[in-house]
Amino acid sequence: MGFLNYSVYEPIEKEIPVVIILYCLIIIQVLLLTLFLIFRWRNRRVLAIRYLSWSFCSYVLAFSCFLVSALEGLVTGYKMQIYRYFMGFGYFFFILGHILFILFSKEIFSLEWKNVQIYIIIGGIVSISVVLPQNYYGVPTGSEGPDNIRFYSSLAMLIFSLFLFGRIALRTFQVYRKMTLKYARYGFLGFFIGEIAMIFVFLFILADFLYWEFNLLSGYTIFYYFAVISGIVSIGGFFLGIYVPPKLQAQEFRKLAEKMLVEEKKDEMISVQNRVESVDKKNLPLFNSRSIGLSPLPKTTGEKPAILIQCPSCLNHLYYEIPKSLIQARAQNQKDLVSIKIPVGLICNHSFLVYLDRNFSIRSYSMIDLENKG
User: Fold this and answer.
1) Are 63 and 27 in contact (CB under 8 A)?
2) Of 2, 118, 146, 352, which one has the greatest count of Cβ atoms within 10 A?
């Protein structure tokens, strides 16, 4: 069945030492980014960060499989059994990373589940097709069996990747244009750069694939190296989108709080401004454009504690005074989080939940009604 019964092996390309170095470079970069995300998730267990860290973990596994395949070719001079098995699994983990990335995008952009399901189903079919033995990985051109599907499975993988990241990049750009907060704009801009670079990765790989396929040859063209460069740019874009926003969030937070206090012209709001506690950077989200809040006033002052709540959909915001009943209930509640329901009409035409920790700092939001009822 497929290449499993073939004892003929394709010679390894002469460029394989350079390719191995590039694989190692990409693995190190993605692994560092993955570890950074895992530490973020441990401090702030947000579902979107979990999906993104799993996605990059899958990419690390994919390139690790490619690296093992290349190392066998470097040692033996041929694409033998290890190459044949690991190439298929490498492509499988690559598509799995795509599926996890669309789940991350669903959490960030509140995508409809029925649309996400389509990508998951197609991705599942493609991921299975690339591991089938009928792909004849490592078998010389012209020696494959009549059931060879490598051309179709590889083409399906590239087209699926292009459509997936094209759709996500378009949505990212639309959200980026609507952002007013500086740290949020930097976050979405970084991800947009990373997604556009990923699109170029697959375009260059597609050009490389078609060139060798129609010329019945094997090897690496200049398009392959352009794809690697685009991949490195993509990793850099994702890193900027993840790392930079928390550094800017505290500064943006203070500016927005000051502006709101001036507009409100209320004595209690000025008092809140003077007593704002310093932002704990460890508790800042990855690049959560939907959340911003102030720590409450000390209970001993006798003044009402307040938080600045922002709608995660339309970004309208106002100060919300924490009821005494909630403070008393919170003192008796041992749970880590407590939620406040913001009804339609209080801030805007949306209804959502605000999750607060024991210090009444905003940890996350959850939309209840995404439709504008105005």
Assistant:
1) yes
2) 352
Q: Residue ranges per domain, the chain?
A: 7-138+150-250, 304-373
- 167-171, 192-196, 252-256: lowest mean pLDDT where? 252-256
Give the β-pairing of 78-79 and 306-310: unpaired
Sign of torsion, CA 27 18 195 205?
Answer: negative
- Residue range 7-138+150-250 in CATH 1.20.1070: yes
pTM of the full structure: 0.66
Q: What is the dihedral of CA 216, 222, 224, 226, to 10 degrees?
A: -160
CA distance 196 to 193: 5
**Higher pLDDT, residue 172 or 40:** 172
d(CA 152, CA 130): 9
Residue 100: its H or E element: helix 81-109
Backbone CA torsion sign across 208, 213, 214, 216: positive
Q: How many CA atoms lie within 13 A of 128 on its CB side?
A: 5
pLDDT digits (tens, 9 = 90+) for 35-59: 888 887 776 677 888 899 999 999 9
For 42, 276, 298, 348, the CA distances from 308, given in Å and listed in that order, are 26, 11, 16, 14
Q: Which two tokens mark 296?
A: 């409450």
Residue 291 confidence (pLDDT): 37
Q: Identity (one letter) of the amino acid at 228?
A: V
